[in-house]
Amino acid sequence: MNTNIHPALVGSLSSTAPAEAIINFSPGPTGLPKAVEERITAAFNAPGLTSLALSHRAPEFQTILDHAVATTRKVMQIPDEYEVLFTHGGGHGQFAALPLNLCHDQSDIATYVVNGTWSERGRDEASKYCSVQTIDAKDPETGKYTSFPELTEANIDPDSKYLYLCSNETVNGIELHRLPKLPESRKHIPLVVDASSDFSTKPIDWRGCGVGVLFACASKNIGHPGLTMTIVRKDLLGNASPLCPGVFNYTTNSDAGNLWNTPATFNIEVVGFLMDWLEQQGGVAECEKRSIAKAQAIYDVIDSSNGFYGTPIDNKTLRSRMNVPFNVAGGDEALTNKFLIESWEKGMIGLRTLTPFGFGDYLRASLYNGVSEEEANTLADFMKRFASENA
Ligand code: PMP
Question: Which ligand 1 atom is at minimum distance from the Cα of 27?
Answer without folding.
Answer: 8
